[in-house]
Write a structure and sequence with these properties.
The chain has 249 residues and is an alpha/beta fold. The chain is built from eleven helices and eight strands. It starts with 6 loop residues before the first strand and ends with a helix.
Length: 249
């Protein structure tokens, strides 16, 4: 029997492609189902205010899909804790919410929370999510000091921003330095009792070195790299390729 998967497939890119035409394909729910049938742990989406990729309607359709067909899988909702986003969390009740410090115009999440600034809105969002029985994760830079702040605020997990590590695909020496930062942050999170997730620019090539040093990472949210891989190999095959990179198959 294969191990429980760490892979959460982010389907934002599928929604972006669909939105180029006023047509129902490619189907966000259809491809999410393919990923979960192939063994993915669950699905991650980041609905932005302008709905340029994931729409609010997608969130509810994915929630229904998982409830009806994949009750052992998980939906992770990613976003900035604005009133509109928190209403979506309250209504959709995902398994996990990842709070990110994004401005509305950002193309992607590219930095973690600055805990030295006013985080009162974030604290309120964490409390509200817990009231809804939703697991809370905070997006953190690869900085060993960050997990302690996240734990103090009441988060149950962090997701380490692995973009700087992923960007070193053509510079092995720099990649090793960035990897050490990620691992040190993961170990710091583990030391304060937080679950550890990782995400951004992870690939079948750079995942094995990361898990060799931090095998306790429990979840990896992968969108761009996964979608690029699936364009060549197919959705189901890419689930297998990433799970193999994670040592699960």
């Amino acid at each position: 029997m294969s191990a429980v998967s760490r892979l959460s497939v982010n389907v934002n890119a599928i929604a972006m492609l669909r939105n180029r035409r006023d047509l129902p394909w490619p189907s966000v729910t259809g491809l999410a189902a393919l990923a979960m049938e192939a063994g993915a742990k669950g699905i991650t989406v980041h609905p932005r205010p302008d709905e340029r990729h994931i729409r609010k309607s997608d969130v509810f359709e994915l929630s229904e899909l998982i409830e009806d067909r994949f009750p052992n899988k998980e939906l992770c909702l990613e976003g900035y804790p604005s009133p509109d986003f928190m209403k979506l969390v309250e209504d959709a009740r995902p398994d996990q919410v990842l709070f990110v410090p994004d401005e509305p115009e950002q193309t992607t999440s590219d930095h973690g929370w600055d805990f030295s600034k006013d985080t009162s809105r974030l604290a309120d969002a964490i409390a509200m999510s817990k009231d809804c029985a939703v697991t809370v994760s905070l997006f953190c830079d690869p900085d060993p000091s960050a997990p302690a702040h996240a734990a103090k605020m009441g988060a149950e997990r962090i997701e380490i921003y692995t973009g700087p590590y992923g960007a070193c695909y053509d510079d092995q020496d720099r990649a090793l330095k960035e990897l050490d930062k990620v691992v040190a942050t993961a170990e710091s999170a583990q030391a304060v009792g937080l679950g550890v997730n990782a995400g951004h620019d992870l690939t079948v090539e750079n995942i094995p070195p990361l898990l060799a040093k931090a095998p306790f990472i429990r979840e990896m949210s992968i969108g761009h790299g996964f979608t690029a891989d699936a364009l060549i190999h197919g959705f189901a095959a890419s689930v297998n390729r990433f799970r193999c990179a994670m040592g699960e198959l």
